[in-house]
Design a protein that fits this description.
Layout lengths: L1 E5 L2 H21 L5 E4 L6 H14 L7 E4 L1 E3 L10 H13 L6 E2 L8 H14 L5 E4 L21 E4 L2 H7 L12 E4 L2 H5 L3 E6 L5 H9 L17 E6 L9 H9 L7
Parallel strand pairs: 1-10, 2-3, 2-6, 3-5, 6-9, 9-10
Antiparallel strand pairs: 4-8, 7-8
The protein binds fructose -6-phosphate.
């Protein structure tokens, strides 16, 4: 796992956006559209804005990019401002100029959620798989909505949100009881299938989860620790999110002395 520690949230956004732009450019050079896995939540917002800036400055055309969201609440109308359909449209599709027909979000309203989740997996496969999956991390170590003790081999499926996640996300709703209890989420196995994984985290509230992800044991108690199994995972964090890393100095040393030929 590559660990990049920067000064602040703005630098996290710029560095992550440059990583994504690089994937879009190299897919374009290979004459194909990039397939991006996109996350909701507050962590990646700056990254999307910085990517929009790069696209404007370089006239990087993102209209052919395919996008697959990580998760969705069960039972929220798509028009609800906090449904992930609406959030992805507002924070990703519009600012980046993606074609809405190429942007996919799991269906949290399907009569048969299990079947809808299976179709979502098929849609990712049919798109050729995800080139880069952008992730945030929950304070409890979740990625997507894979809460602690989720199977590290899980696929897209319905889940019950952890009480703490509902409390954490209540800030987006008028009250806690409006936060859905269930969700559909890509599984950890689905996330690990992406050719690259890129996780961003900012602030001290993420420091404990970040340390568990990078340095803790591989454990379903910290679902993000599954990224230790990914052959091309990058974590970009600010100083506050890096505060509890034991080997912080080493990661900074590595960035200054990249092994020859490394990515
Ligand atoms: C969002 C998602 C979640 C968030 C995580 C962090 O699609 O899947 O895993 O990335 O809850 O949320 P924020 O960024 O709001 O702290």
């Amino acid at each position: 796992m590559r660990v990049i520690i920067v000064e602040n949230a703005a630098q996290v956004a710029n560095a992550a956006a440059e990583h994504i732009a690089q994937v879009v450019r190299s897919c374009a050079a290979a004459d194909r559209a990039a397939v991006l896995g996109v996350a909701t939540g507050s962590s990646p917002i700056g990254t999307y804005n910085a990517l929009a800036e790069i696209a404007r400055a370089e006239q990087l055309d993102l209209s052919e990019v395919r996008a697959f969201a990580l998760d969705e609440y069960v039972g929220l109308d798509r028009e609800h401002p906090e449904s992930y359909h609406a959030v992805i449209h507002r924070t990703v599709t519009e600012p980046l100029g993606l074609n809405p027909a190429h942007v996919h979000v799991p269906d949290g309203l399907a009569a048969d959620l299990y079947e809808a989740c299976q179709s979502y997996e098929t849609a990712i496969t049919n798109a050729g798989g995800v080139d880069l999956q952008l992730l945030g991390i929950g304070a409890n170590g979740h990625i997507g909505f894979n809460e602690p003790t989720s199977s590290l081999a899980s696929r897209t499926r319905p889940k019950t949100l952890a009480p703490q996640t509902r409390v954490d996300n209540a800030r987006f709703f008028d009250s806690l009881d409006q936060v859905p209890v269930h969700c559909v989420t890509q599984g950890i196995g689905t996330i690990l299938d992406a050719r690259k994984a890129l996780l961003v985290a900012q602030g001290e509230s993420k420091a404990e989860a970040v340390a568990a992800m990078i340095e803790g044991p591989l454990s379903s108690m910290c679902p993000a620790s599954a990224l230790q199994l990914h052959p091309d995972a990058t974590v970009i964090i600010d100083r506050e999110a890096a505060a509890m890393l034991t080997l912080r100095d080493y990661y900074e040393h590595i960035e200054l002395h990249q092994p020859h030929g490394s990515k």
